[in-house]
Every structure is written in structure tokens, then in C-alpha cells.
Amino acid sequence: MADLLFRLQSDLNASRKAQDKPATLLLGTIVSDIKNREIELTRDLTDEDVIEVVRRGIKKRREALEMFEKGNRPELAAIEGAQVKLLEAYLPGGPSTDEIRAAVRAAIGGGAANIGAVMALVMPQFKGRADGGAITKVVREELTKPG
């Protein structure tokens, strides 16, 4: 069993004992998603597989948060924001912005001239470690620099 899955299950049990309903619901959902992914892959999951499922959960909740903010529902947006923070605690530390920027500059220096080309070169380097949105932001900054 992946260490991260074990940690999630332990935290789920602790939240049940503490009767923390929001955390129990969130962690229960994530553990369920992980088990479904394990069935889908028909093998034991690695920590990388578990991290991928947690990242998907974070992405879903960020999208919901954005929709609630657009729909002027701050109370629901706050709940989604809290869930994102809770799930982010299970992710390993990501690369720094400087590390991403160096990779983006190397890709641009290698001849990539548009966002798609740069992303195609940079994304594999940070797979599972960095959010695509953060990388895209750096790519846009670097491509729009006068230069």
C-alpha cells in the first residue's frame, strides 16, 4: 500500500473519531476515488498514482470554487477553498517558480516560440510536481517579455 494512501486513511479515521464531518466527507471521497483508480488500473497504486488522484480532487474543487465565486456564493466558495487547502497538505512540495522559469527559458532558448511548444517541452519535466496553470502563467510571462 502506498504510504500516502495509508496516511489518508489514518487521517480519515482520526477525523471520524473527532466527528469532524467536513474532513471526514472530503477524505472519504478522496480515499474512495483512490480505491476506484486502483480497480481501474488493476494493480496496487504507487504514491505517484495517489498524488495524481489527489491533484485531480484539488483541480475539481478549484473549478467549483471559481464557479461559486462567479455565481456570488462566497459561503460555498469558502468551503471549496478550505477543502483545497486540506488536500494540498498531502502533496509533496512542488518546484519553485524560479525552477519553472529556468526550464521555460531553456525551452524558449531551444527554439520554442509559442505557448503550446513551450508547454510541450516543459510539462514532462514537472509531471506530478507542478500545476499546469502555474506553468502556463510563467510561460506567458516569459513569452511576452520584450526581448
Amino-to-carboxy terminus distance: 50 Å
* Total individual domains: 2
Q: What is the CATH C level class of the largest domain, in words?
A: Mainly Alpha
Which percent bin holds the helix content? over 70%
**Secondary-structure arrangement, i.e. CATH architecture of the largest domain:** Orthogonal Bundle
Strand content: under 5%
Instruction: Briefly note the CATH topology name of the largest domain.
Output: Hypothetical Protein Yqey, Chain: A, domain1
Question: Roughly how many Å is the radius of gyration?
Answer: 18 Å
For the secondary structure, the number of strands is 0
Average pLDDT for all residues: 89
Give the low-pLDDT segments: none
Structural class: mainly alpha
* Rough outline: globular
CATH 4th-level superfamily of the largest domain: Uncharacterised protein YqeY/AIM41, N-terminal domain
| Element string (H = helix, E = strand) | HHHHHHH
* Major pleated sheet: none
Number of helices, counting only DSSP H or I runs of 4 residues or more: 7
Write structural notes for this entry.
It is a single chain. With 147 residues, the protein is an all-alpha fold. It folds into two domains: 3-88, Hypothetical Protein Yqey, Chain: A, domain1, CATH 1.10.1510; 97-144. Helix content is 74%, strand content 0%. The protein is built from seven helices and no strands. Helix 2 crosses helix 3 (47-70), helix 5 (97-109) crosses helix 6 and helix 6 packs across helix 7. The longest helix has 24 residues, at 47-70. The chain is globular and about 55 Å long. It starts with a helix and ends with a helix. The relative contact order is 0.09. The mean pLDDT is 89.
